[in-house]
Amino acid sequence: MYEEKPRWYESEPDPELGESPCIFTSVTPAWNNMNLIRLAEKIKSPLVFAHVRASTAGSVSESNCHPWQYGRLMFMHNGNVADFSLIKRKVVESLPDEIFLSVNGNTDSEMAFAVFLSQLENPRQTKPFGHAALKEAVLKTIEKLNAWSKAAGVKEASMMNFAVTDGVSVVCTRYISSRTLEAASLYFSSGTRFESYKPGHYRMVKADKREDMVVIASEPLTFEKADWLTIPTNTLMVVTSKMNVLLYPIIDEYYNPNPASRSSGEDNIAYAVLKGENRQDGARDHDHREVVFVPGRSEAVAAVPTDDSEASSVASQSPKLGLGRTSAEASRSSSSVDSLDQTPGSRNSATVSPLGRPPVTRPFNPLGTSRAVASPSGLQETLLAS
User: Fold this and answer.
1) Hey, which residues does 291 pair with through a beta bridge?
2) pLDDT of residue 149 exceeding 70
3) Whole-angstrom Cα distance, residue 56 to residue 6?
4) Among candidates 107, 98, 36, 35, which has minimal Cα distance to 66?
5) How does pLDDT run across 192-201, given as a tens digit for each residue?
6) Are the CB atoms for 55 and 311 separated by under 8 Å?
7) What is the sign of the dihedral through the CA atoms of 55, 59, 65 and 69?
8) Radius of gyration, CA atoms only, the chain
9) Angle, to 10 degrees, between the axis of helix 131-151 and the axis of helix 108-118?
10) Res. 36: pLDDT tops 50
11) What is the mean pLDDT of residues 91-96?
């Protein structure tokens, strides 16, 4: 039985706050939302998701803003399920009544979350699920969406950069249903604390070999490119409750053992067109930056997004959350990212564990072979986990 204590608000659970996350959403631009700015200056939490969304079709409403919450689970998505209207009926038919009735918006992303929930034995359980259960549910979600799309004759590739947490563990994917195209970019950085060294400039500080926090982002958040490792295309990333970072290649029909053979450049333009297509089945998500802050037992700190967007959302865990526009030091944690080799001369190594196989170590280029994905609006999304 998984007995890890929840981390949404404090290191010790608070019965008054419960075991579900607090979520703030708004349809106003993040840079012009005074409530967001005020909350970000005062709220602190060891686990934070933040997301900026731009929609070119469908309704602009709070119900379509990422992330979504169900019980103690929280989920957001950067990408699209290609030609979702062709598989929407199949998706709906597969959902249990309780999960179907929980869907309030009309985006393919929220439906993907509903499919994810239906893969869990008891999505309403109050105890943490454990990273293994979350990982398997995410993989089954991708498998089912791919199967429905293939059966419907969908030719376009789906972008499925998912992020989900139960308040203790975090699971993210960088995925595209193609053997030749690059997925939307995704990076991570780890260290002792994330701090501001001058106004508007942040860096990851590595005081020792211990890793007290992890940041996962769709693009590097600092100018120190050497601090960021590229998550390869079609890879699942896990941040465990012990602050271990694990990378698993997603081995399916779209798995390509040679990442360098995936094309970039022109494909990014194709992705921008794909993201900008009008659809008849509802809102279209244009999510171009994700960030996950994972500071362990410390507090998560982040800058307020400055991108002009039609809708934005920030999820946090407490009225005390400390997401400030200025930095706050993350307190030390005894946990470490065992799967990362941060010794001098080998900073660009990480443990890659193929599904069902022993971990192996492979070198990573901090910038990798991927490039930032072009988008019609230039907007980006950010995901934080700690």
Assistant:
1) 50, 217
2) yes
3) 37
4) 107
5) 888 888 887 8
6) yes
7) negative
8) 19
9) 120
10) yes
11) 96
Share of the chain above pLDDT 90, in %: 34
Q: What does the alpha-carbon distance between residue 287 and residue 103 come to, in Å, rounded to a whole number?
A: 19
Show the beta-strand stretches assigned E in the chain: 22-26, 48-53, 68-70, 73-80, 159-165, 170-174, 187-191, 193-198, 201-205, 213-217, 229-230, 235-239, 245-249, 290-294, 311-316, 340-341, 349-352, 360-363
Single-letter residue type at 33: N
Amino acid (one-letter) located at 377: S
Map residue 84 onto helix, strand or coil: helix
- Residue pair 244/296 in contact (Cβ under 8 Å)? The answer is no
SS3 at position 169: coil
Burial class (CB in 10 A: 0-12, 13-18, 19+), 215: buried
CA-to-CA separations, 325 to 7, 194, 296, 301, 303, in angstroms, rounded: 22, 12, 20, 8, 4
Closest among 71, 65, 55, 40 to 293, alpha carbons compared: 40
Q: What is the pLDDT of residues 276-300, one digit of tens each?
A: 333 344 444 444 455 666 555 433 3
Task: Determine the average pLDDT of the residues in 50-72.
Answer: 73
Please say if the pLDDT value at position 367 is more than 50.
no
Residue 45 has pLDDT above 70, yes or no: yes
**Per-residue DSSP letter, 332:** P
Residues 184 and 163 sit within 8 Å (Cβ to Cβ): no
Rounded distance between C-alpha atoms, residue 252 and residue 146, angstroms: 10
Q: Please report the DSSP string for 40-104 in residue order.
A: HHHB--S-EEEEEEB-SSS---GGGSSPEEETTEEEEEEEE-TTGGGTHHHHHHHS-HHHHHT--
- Give yes or no for a contact between 113 and 68, defined as CB atoms under 8 angstroms apart: yes
